From TrEMBL:
InterPro entries: Kinase-like_dom_sf, Prot_kinase_dom, Ser-Thr/Tyr_kinase_cat_dom. It comes from Extremus antarcticus. This is Protein kinase domain-containing protein. It comes from the Eukaryota. Residues 23-318 form the Protein kinase domain. Signal peptide: none annotated. Pfam families: PK_Tyr_Ser-Thr. One of its GO terms (molecular function) is protein kinase activity.
């Protein structure tokens, strides 16, 4: 998977031209401070699905295969840093994080001078921001606690390499001190899943272009702790999920405590994270209900339609 080139010749293919040799661009998705993203599919995956369709003639199978093969392609923003370090950094971070259910996973990449791109899994159900705006009146307290719980567990992994929030044991002792530095609900994607207790919303964190490893000299807690605090508030400044930030809720009281102690070291941070997780699990269990039908249907309808899938060829974006 992926390649880092050493091409030093005067001519080098642009990232988009190089990408189109192996992928089909479907449509533009979004633009950030240092990158542009497109919905795409690898040509080999498209051809494989098409050959299977010609052999078996099953339209449902074709659509399902195409949907499962979709990826998000990211290119360095035309007005981004000339050296492209942000894009290379994001590739390295995603390689380091590995395959996790609560982060967008790296699929492929190419870096050769200024010709840079990478692809990651496509999470079609949209972002937490859009979800809250569309379904706010139907999001109950149990679902809110569940969302907050997942966000905190994700940041435990990012900052400390902790994969089991019940034992709070790091994945390995050599895990560095990392800061994510781009917390907002637009970077928190949703994954719809069916469980034994009914439909569930799973949080998937995206966009790691600003994530950096810190050193002791960099005053790492100055960067790490505000991220966790802002995450726990579920980005209060955006006005989303305000019930989580009301003064009478345990979450708000906990966030205020975290704010007070945010510069006093990771031991206190982990202690408070553990305290929050215990409260969140209890509150989620106490308030959890079956997901409302309209929310379930909203999430199910987010993936592209059959017609979108069948119009892939001939709709490359140049």
């Amino acid at each position: 998977m992926g390649s880092f080139g050493t091409n030093t010749t005067p001519y080098r293919k642009t990232a988009r031209n190089h990408f189109r040799e192996s992928h089909i661009e479907i449509r533009y998705l979004a633009s950030g401070s240092n990158g542009e993203t497109y919905l795409a599919i690898a040509t080999k995956d498209f051809d494989q699905a098409h050959e299977a369709y010609k052999e078996h003639g099953c339209m449902d199978t074709l659509v399902r295969q195409l949907r499962q093969s979709l990826v998000v392609a990211k290119f360095l923003h035309p007005r981004g840093p000339a050296d492209g370090n942000d894009l290379q950094n994001e590739i390295n971070v995603l390689k380091m994080l590995g395959t996790r259910p609560n982060i967008t996973n790296l699929v492929d990449y190419h870096v050769d001078g200024d010709s840079q791109w990478f692809t990651m899994e496509y999470v079609p159900e949209g972002s937490l921001r859009h979800f809250v705006k569309a379904c706010y009146s139907k999001i109950d307290l149990g679902m809110q606690w569940g969302i907050a719980l997942q966000i905190v567990e994700t940041f435990l992994y990012l900052h400390f390499g902790i994969t089991d929030s019940k034992t709070m044991t790091p994945l390995n002792k050599s895990w560095g001190l990392w800061r994510y530095a781009d917390v907002h609900c637009g970077n928190m994607l949703l994954r719809y899943s069916d469980s034994d207790t009914g439909p569930e919303v799973r949080i998937v964190l995206a966009d790691f272009g600003r994530m950096r490893e810190c050193t002791i000299e960099e005053d790492e807690f100055k960067y790490i702790h505000p991220d966790c605090e802002e995450c726990l508030r579920v980005t209060r400044r955006y006005g989303l999920l305000p019930k989580l930030t009301e003064a009478e809720t345990p979450l708000w009281e906990w966030a205020e405590k975290l704010n007070k102690y945010q510069f006093e070291g990771d031991f206190q941070l982990l202690e408070f994270l553990n305290e929050f997780l215990e409260v969140a699990r209890k509150e989620q269990g106490r308030h959890k209900k079956h997901m409302p039908y309209m929310i379930s249907e909203y999430l199910r309808c987010q993936p592209p339609t059959n017609n979108d899938m069948l119009r892939l060829v001939g709709q490359h974006r140049y």
